[in-house]
Amino acid sequence: MSKSKFKPEDMPILDIDTSGTNVYEASRFLDSPETISAYLAQSMRSQDPQLLMKALAEVAKAQGVNKVAEAAGVNRESLYKTLKGGSKTRYETVQKLMVALGVELTVQPIPRAQSVK
């Protein structure tokens, strides 16, 4: 086989006009319990609490913030504050929110290659 002559530095820099594009909103696609579960599970794999809170916010948006707040037993403003992140959100709050969204946290083993020894 011949060696590749590709050099990344030879790639042209693209000047793309994005002014006519929209911001991606995950909430538009979170339309089933399976999709919501997969989306939240993937956000948890990042091990970044802020990313989880952003994902929970997208799911709440998809289901209707007022409806989720009522189901969680909190007012809408408190829910927005919780989903905004930044502060340390209590487990109890996240648990109430998860139940209101119709999902639950589960535990499963981490593959050996990723686990802490």
List the helices and strands and how they pair.
Layout: H1 33-45, H2 49-63, H3 65-72, H4 76-84, H5 91-101
Helix pairs in contact: 1-2, 2-4, 3-4, 3-5
Describe this structure in words.
The chain has 117 residues and is mainly α. The chain has a domain at 32-101. It is 48% helix and 0% strand. It has helices at residues 33-45, 49-63, 65-72, 76-84, 91-101. The longest helix has 15 residues, at 49-63. The radius of gyration is 20 Å and the shape is extended. The relative contact order is 0.12. The model has no long low-confidence stretch (mean pLDDT 82).
Summary of the model, kept short:
By secondary structure, this protein is mainly alpha-helical. It is 48% helix and 0% strand. The protein starts with 32 loop residues before the first helix and ends in a 16-residue tail after the last helix.
Strand share of the residues? under 5%
Rounded to the nearest angstrom, the radius of gyration is 20 Å
Low-pLDDT residue intervals, each spanning 5 or more residues = none
Biggest sheet: strands, sense, closure?
A: none
Based on DSSP secondary structure assignment, what is the total number of beta strands? 0
Descriptive labels:
5 helices; 117 residues; mainly alpha; 0% strand; extended; 48% helix
